[in-house]
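Obj.: predict assembly geometry.
Materials: sequence records (below).
Method: joint structure prediction, all chains together.
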Amino acid sequence: MSEAPLLEVRNLAVGFESGGTVARAVDGVSFRVTRGKTLGIVGESGCGKSVTAFSIMRLLPQPHGKILGGKILFEGRDLVQADEAELHRIRGGRIGMVFQEPLSALNPVQTIGRQVTEALLLHKPLTKEAAWAEAITLLDKVGIPSPEVRIREYPHQLSGGMRQRVVIAMALSCNPSLLIADEPTTALDVTIQAQILELMLSLQRDLGMAIVLITHDLGVIAQVCDEAVVMYAGQVAEYGPVEALFHRPAHPYTRGLLASIPRLTTPRKSRLPTIEGAVPGLNQMPAGCRYQNRCPYAEARCALAPPPLETVAEGHAVSCLRWRELPEFKPVSPAAV
Amino acid sequence: MSSPAPILEVRDLKTHFPVRGGIWLRSVATCKAVDGVSFQLLPGETLGLVGESGCGKSTLGKTIVRLLAPTAGSIRFEGTDLATLGRKKLKPIRRHLQMIFQDPAESLNARHTVGQILEEPFIIHGIGSAEERRASVDTLLDKVGLPRAAAHRYPFEFSGGQRQRIGIARALALQPRLIICDEPVSALDVSIQSQVLNLLLDLQREFHLSYLFITHNLAVVKHVSDRIAVMYLGRIVELADAEGLYARPRHPYTRALIAAIPEPEPRATRPRFIGTGDLPSPINPPPGCPFHPRCPHATDLCRREPPPLRETSSAAEPSHAVACHYDLLPAAIPSPLGAPQKQESRDT
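Observations (raw structure tokens):
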């Protein structure tokens, strides 16, 4: 981790204004993305993972969403301070974006070709003909069969998986150094999801870009990412290399999540471990650790002050006062074969 | 499958929809959402129904409870064929046959309190006095792990997991014998998903319920099911015991599905066989085997003749049916769980 990271988010806080109060959806989030690597951000609905992604691109819903503090350092520049013109150059240029629902990311009344060439023409000095030719190459690269035909079609004529390929082609059009993918496969079927994830990884190998992958699916994180950030209630609960997170999780929340997913090796019809209770509302966050009301290991001091991020090992940190005292983690109950 | 009589027996069920077009909205084509499905469900058993979007699994579920009218075939529930029954005759049977939907926010009336929602089944079927009904509501809330005070609140005041509990309580109200669960945990977060799965398993044990469990999630379906049917384009392509299906998948589509599961285990070196291409449309299904355009083993026979669902039982597996012309060798595509020895070494 000696070389400068491609992206470094430092102490990011994001709030949404409503009726005079500000709900802090993201509160003190820090992480780094290494060049050419994949960082996963995982958490449940409302944990702030998408808000974090939208903040990096400065695409928070206006006028209510505001970055309240922190830094987003991308290739040496602080995107929090960047002006609109600079952001325009970066978005779709140095940073590509892929969203969950490809149908709403695409314009229904424009052809695929027009939409793919749009980014190319905006960011590159190309003639229309050259951009069209490059768009065909891009569509071919993302695995769209007969791209010279598909390029004249409209989004509704493509399947969900094909549409997501188009969105990926658009995101890649200007050779970004960072691709931000917000739940890119959530709306897709498993076999299509596997195809899209494979595609993203092979493109990453060819093009050397870094990926920030936001998902609620721990399986996707395990299959695709090098490192991951586990978010809970707007904060980082734990981050680290994927192997460490899945085999030596230090935060009770990470452990709870891992234990509660049914796996192919879980004995059938057995009771699954659960995380009791629910996430507190944004306006009812307790002082101290935000997981305390659901944590089986919580004690009095957890309620006093927010736990600091402590280093577990190189590149692996956890925000829990009691992480040293937790029992050994047993990831999977042995298969009852 | 000899001893108990099945609670549900579906035979050659077809649900087709007309596709309308042109200015007069005449029927221009037929969408064969469910196209010749047969299976049995035993009392107390869970049959998982798994497949990708558009395979007809939800249509099948809705046809069984007669929210949709079947085009052909029979649905025998405890001996009575529901496929041909009229509204009046259907009503008394419906109380034994309930459904839980994917999105609890959409399947609960937002303008009714939870108490009114849970009381409604009793009112519809004319059961009990007002007093008794309210007592039943309390019992139902206890059963699904909600506070009794919930009866006076509205669905929007609850989280997704709690709303799904309300949906489950409503389905349980009339003490049904069969519940069709249509993606009951797909809209829920992982930590909530396990709570709801546990609840469904507990209720099944307590009331000896039969479930038809519809989902696209292959890990969830394995966890809850005794047997699993894999659907593709309106047909069952494989039907087997839950363990046997994953240990010895026979249909190339089942193998592709299992290989595509993102297991929460980093760098799991599972063999990857990912089918290429998309699901064809059920409006114009390919001739022959519906899977042949995506199948790596397809031959001329597959392109010509649709394979019937046939038993391939052996001594090791009393019941394992597959709709494939060929007996693909298990060695051709290794078991997704890896060899058993290897797995033990990973756990220790």
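Conclusions so far: Residues 9 and 72 of chain A are 5 Å apart (CA to CA).
To do: check interface contacts against the pulldown list.
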